[in-house]
What we know:
Layout: H1 14-21, H2 23-35, H3 40-59, H4 63-73, H5 76-87, H6 92-119, H7 123-148, H8 160-172, H9 176-209
Helix pairs in contact: 2-5, 3-4, 3-5, 3-6, 4-8, 5-6, 6-7, 7-9, 8-9
Amino acid sequence: MAKTVDTMTSKKTFTDYLRLWFKWVLDPLGRLFLRLGLTPNMVTMLGLAGNTAGAYFLARGDLLTGGILIAVMTPIDALDGTMARLRGEASDWGAYVDSVSDRYSELIIYGGLMYHFLSVGDVTGGMLAFGAAAGSVLVSYVKARAEGLGYEARVGLLTRAERYLVLAPALVFNLIYVGLGILAVFANLTALQRIWHVRRLVHERMKRKN
């Protein structure tokens, strides 16, 4: 039996707003990719491959090239969903593949950074990269676990779009310690925000039952 998602308010995330603001760009690009014979899942895999290539350059210490690749690949994250909508073929499987590939993309990027920092003996950089990776995983896990129990948890300061908007410029402009520090702190704070949000929802549901 499908669970009913319990919400306090119907809020759009920053990612949702970005999709709306850039719809005039995403829709024509999505139609172009469809005409070229690409499918939404193929574009999802293209984004994963591009971020993996970026992580390779990060592991080698070429933060500029890696950052540029990651910045270029970031809009691909929105294109697969746009293409599925344009084809009228949005599906649970496509959403599942997109979500899983997103998690792999982020972890591969942070893995590349950790490899670079540890290979040059930079323990501080490695710990910052680990903190950012842990926060990004927990943000997603808390949301997925809440939804599995029938609650919505789309709130928070640093969702996926914001994390990329911090990470890519930090790499390109050689501000990686600043960027990773922001991610390590605020991604974990976002996870805590979501935990607190779900706690309130649980108590609200219990009060209604009583």
